[in-house]
Amino acid sequence: MIRQLGLCTAVAAFAPLAFGTPARAEGDLVRGAQAARACMACHSFTPGRHLTGPSLAGVWGRKAGTADGFARYSDALKRSELVWDKRNLDAWLKNPAALVPGNAMGFPGIADTHTRADLVAYLEAVSSGRVTAPDRGLPNLKEVDTASRVTAIRYCGDAYRLTTADRQTYTFWEFNLRFKTDGSADGPPAGKPVLIGTGMQGDRAAVVFARPEEISSFIQRQCS
Question: Does domain 3-128 have CATH number 1.10.760.10?
């Protein structure tokens, strides 16, 4: 079976938290942990483990745009001179575009004051070590089974045919198959790409390589 990532979008995950929240004490860590699940669609809580966005480990007190090893910050955020404290995190979570115009975070913000307070309190507690956050990042692609390890890719017409290490063959319309790279410590071994399902009806997937230069050399134009 093709491995599934199953990551939800941050907007969908925050939706039930943003409306109709009853009054409560500021900074509830249990509710903050629930709200933080949405962050995990794009962020890790492991130091140095960057996903779409930078790791949130140690975010409290860190200057914006300076997480070690993350190179995709917008120029607007790097120029902001912000330090992630209670006031700035609350303003960022409320409306990132208003706090730093031109930033690259595609997130509309959290309208509910209490939800933001809970999440800010949780981020401070994790950064200080008072709370340990679970990490739901990408899987370790060095530890996949034979059903996910790709051994051959053939291209013909408008289709890719992938063979895996368990000798199964999967056929994908070319528009439904993506080629990605993961050069992190958890990425696939060199020359051993991994097949990952991306949902829908089983007709869409991604092949993850260790390096971009592997992609073209691995794919063979062959119809037989």
Answer: yes
